Amino acid sequence: MSSIDLSDAKVLVLGGSGVLGGEIGRTLKERKAKVALSGRNEERLRDNAMAIGGIVPTIVADLTERDGPVNVVEQATQLLGGLDGVVNAAGTVAFGDVDELEDSVFYELIATNLTGPIRTIREASRQMDGGFVVSISGLTAETPVAGMAAYSGAKAALSFMTRAIGRELRRKGIHVLDARPPHTETGLIHRALVGEPPSLPRGLDPRDVAFTIVDALEKGRRELAAADFAA
Fold it and tell me: Fewer Cβ within 10 Å of end Cβ, the chain: N or C?
């Protein structure tokens, strides 16, 4: 495995308005990377940027919109003066059996967790000369969960596409890491599109998860299974 030097790397963090996205942005900044955060919630983006400290540009963007991926990559490239890496921490969740979900919820899950991030990664890879991509799916990509079939399916597809894309992008010198952390205390389950979350044990600390992911990236790893986080 070849190590990756994050010093001065220009990195776009998708889902930067979320707790995990913010912590990843902070960890990257601590490793001397230049970071831009993107997300749909302007207030949370601003709060995360302030918590990180220093100059952290923010981009209010919706990756599910037709031109969202192109626009966010263009803005990040302009704000950072180039683009060396993309970290996908975007996502949303819904609870309920698949036959209970409205079409609008089903499509939102697929667009936010799968097609939006993949289209953005595709667009970024067209602009990048070497560099890296990190995509975060989660434990449900490994272990399907009843009452979360649509979410599990979207995350499993994201994980498999990320790993396949990683093989394709090696020809361009772009390193790809697929990370599948277990349940993490980001508060996402309490902002579900619909439904009530099941009873879950306490999740991992987002700070620890962010450190594990960025550390693995620096070490040149291409995959982080859920079990790797417990270790």
Answer: C
Domain boundaries in the chain? 10-230
Rounded CA-CA distance 81/78 in Å is 5
For the record, the structure tokens of 138 come out as 């989660």
For 14, 116, 146, the CA distances from 89, given in Å and listed in that order, are 5, 12, 23
H or E stretch covering 107: helix 103-110
CB atoms within 10 A of CB 148: 23
Phi, psi of 103 (to 5 degrees): -55, -40
What are the DSSP calls for 22-76, one per residue? HHHHHHHHHTT-EEEEEES-HHHHHHHHHHH-S---EEE--TTSTTHHHHHHHHH
Distance of CA 27 to the CA centre of its chain: 14
Does residue 30 carry a pLDDT above 90?
yes
- Report how far residue 50's alpha carbon sits from residue 123's, in angstroms, rounded to the nearest whole number: 28
Arithmetic mean of pLDDT, 179-185: 97
Query: What CA–CA distance (Å, rounded) separates 62 from 72?
Result: 8
Q: Could you name the CATH architecture of 10-230? A: 3-Layer(aba) Sandwich (3.40)
**Percent of the chain whose predicted confidence (pLDDT) is above 90:** 94
Residue 198 scores a pLDDT above 90: no
Specify the DSSP element, H or E, that contains 133.
Answer: strand 131-136
pLDDT band at residue 1 under the 50/70/90 scheme: low
